[in-house]
Specification:
four-stranded antiparallel sheet, 9 strands, disordered C terminus, 4 helices, mainly beta, disordered N terminus, five-stranded mixed sheet, 22% strand
């Protein structure tokens, strides 16, 4: 099923809404990976690491913003573990937010929001939207996840500008490659379990190496979704820029057993004074006409393991 390219007249479209320059990634992606996976339990060490990281590598200008896509929902919950029991290969995601206009200093307190599809290509809130190819209905997964909130969440950046999420490797849907959506907010605050106020400084998407993605998709439960998977070169959003375009650095938990999971990381260079919602910029497919809007239901699950908005190690 994987690796079959779809019609390039469709897939070579670029749905980019550029809000800044390209990234002079240099050594920053590597530095971001190292700092993101460093032990941040000691606040003194964290502050020292943040200071060193802001001056030890060439600073980027801005990450390129792209469409938020058709499956965004307001009111995601502040929590580290966003899986809600969804089956899939574990993914620990660490993102480092830096101010690209101020020497790449960490943006403490930035709220990072992510959302992505499950192993069969379904998004919470849009579980009747056909992911393309042949896949069982989302209801056949047999999990206890809330259909309005699974695989969505916020975390608040610590002194290093770092957030951590526990999730699963996303599946895919036609006509897109495997990806995770991300927004960076500043100026708001945690309220009623979610994040309110402020503004969106960056809207982007995170991408995965083709070889790793295709290997994952041979495993259960991913393998039950068959069809033509879109590789990076044919995706309508990814523009081939590597880390500067959202390509994650991935490290296998166990090199000989991909089912054990991956650690993924990336440094996001933003302008805290800019605003880039990514709304209305097209691309990414079309949601069903009866798609829900608004905040999660009152019975939405919380993250009891992460009662505060702090991004722990």
């Amino acid at each position: 099923m994987t690796g079959n390219h779809k019609n390039t007249s469709i897939t070579r479209r670029r749905a980019l809404a550029v809000s800044g320059g390209t990234v002079a990634a240099g050594g920053l992606a590597v530095a971001g990976f190292q700092s993101a996976f460093a032990d941040t339990t000691d606040s003194t060490d964290a502050d020292a690491s943040a200071s060193a990281g802001s001056t030890s590598s060439e600073c980027m200008t801005l990450m390129t913003s792209v469409t938020e896509g058709p499956y965004y929902l307001d009111g995601a919950l502040v929590r580290k573990d966003i899986t809600e029991g969804k089956a899939g290969v574990p993914l620990t995601l660490r993102l480092t937010v830096v101010d690209a206009t101020d020497g790449c200093t960490p943006v403490k307190g930035a709220a990072v929001e992510i959302w992505h599809c499950d192993a069969w290509g379904y998004y919470s809130g849009y579980t009747t939207a056909n992911p393309g190819g042949s896949a069982p209905a989302e209801s056949e997964e047999g999990d206890s996840a809330n259909d309005q909130t699974y695989l969505r969440g916020y975390q608040i950046a610590n002194a290093n500008g770092v957030v951590k999420f526990e999730t699963i490797f996303p599946g895919w849907y036609t006509p897109r490659t495997c990806h995770i959506h991300v927004k960076v907010h500043t100026g708001g605050e945690k309220e009623d379990g979610t994040y309110e106020g402020g503004k969106v400084n960056y809207t982007g998407q995170l991408f995965f190496d083709d070889d790793i993605a295709e290997e994952i998709f041979t495993l259960e439960p991913y393998s039950k979704h068959t069809g033509s998977y879109t590789v990076l070169a044919d995706d309508m959003v990814y523009d081939g820029g590597g880390a500067s375009s959202g390509l994650l650095t991935l490290k296998a938990v166990h090199k000989k057993d991909p089912s054990k999971g991956y650690k993924g990381s990336l440094t996001l260079g933003i302008d805290p004074d800019a605003e880039s919602t990514g709304a209305g910029s097209g691309g990414g497919g079309t949601p069903p006409s009866d798609a829900p809007t608004g905040t999660p239901p009152s019975d939405a699950p919380s993250d009891s393991a992460s009662p505060s908005a702090s991004a722990s190690s």
